[in-house]
């Protein structure tokens, strides 16, 4: 296991987002105004929505490659919508089963004028996508033990898992050894992002998905 630290300082983030930062501010305002009433975000999170939620997701943007990225369990749009704003060169499928959240996501896609996003109402284990994903993201959906079987089958061989995790990620990796082997997840690494003053620190589990071993 390699632990890498990527620091994203304010100037770098501003450069990364460019004029897209205004769209991100608009999304943040919308989420602040309606997120609590829609059950998307808790009241305690409102004062720290920009640093803890929006920028915390935006700093993952440099890890994405042009292609199709699926965000499993997008909820309010974290990280999927934020990444779609930050990376107009990447196509996104936001996979979310709850009707109310899907309606919110579609509203935001329209309001922000995003042409690189499709919202798919489904559970990850039931979703049918026309094309396999090049990368999959997820944040606050479940532990790796459950998340790997939910996400890895959606990714093409050679594609990547880019999963936002908390401080317990190393323990989760130990507990998920069987699932990592089953889906031939190789080169797993933990990237520590956001250690600068801009956003709260986040850990990203990144790994390559191989050919699946058929069940016995
Ligand atoms: C705790 S919320 C996190 C939402 C968002 N990713 C965030 O960081 O704020 C978990 C989300 O995962 C969705 N979810 C739960 N199980 C799922 C599954 N099997 N497939 C896809 N989404 C799922 C829920 O509907 C919910 O929106």
How does this structure look, described?
Belongs to the methyltransferase superfamily. RNA methyltransferase RsmG family. Specifically methylates the N7 position of a guanine in 16S rRNA. GO terms for molecular function: rRNA (guanine-N7-)-methyltransferase activity. With 216 residues, this protein is α/β, with parallel strands linked by helices. It has a domain at 9-157: Vaccinia Virus protein VP39 (Rossmann fold, 3-Layer(aba) Sandwich). The chain has helices at 10-17, 21-34, 49-58, 80-86, 99-112, 144-151, 169-175, 177-182; strands spanning 2-6, 68-72, 91-96, 117-121, 133-139, 155-165, 185-193, 202-209. Strands 1-7-8-6-5-2-3-4 form an eight-stranded mixed beta sheet. The mean pLDDT is 90. S-adenosylmethionine (SAM) is lined by residues 72-76, 78, 95-98, 101, 123-125, 139-141, 150. S-adenosylmethionine binds next to strand 3.
Along the chain, the helix and strand elements come as EHHHEHEHEEHEHHEE
Strand order, sheet with most strands? 1-7-8-6-5-2-3-4
Which percent range fits the helix content? 25-40%
In whole angstroms, the N-to-C terminal distance is: 29 Å
Mean pLDDT: 90
Q: Hetero groups bound?
A: S-adenosylmethionine
pLDDT < 50 runs, ≥5 residues: none
CATH structural architecture of one domain: 3-Layer(aba) Sandwich
Q: How would you characterize the largest beta sheet?
A: 8 strands, mixed
InterPro entries: rRNA_ssu_MeTfrase_G (IPR003682), SAM-dependent_MTases_sf (IPR029063)
Pfam family, one: GidB
Keywords: Cytoplasm, Methyltransferase, rRNA processing, S-adenosyl-L-methionine, Transferase
Family: Belongs to the methyltransferase superfamily. RNA methyltransferase RsmG family.
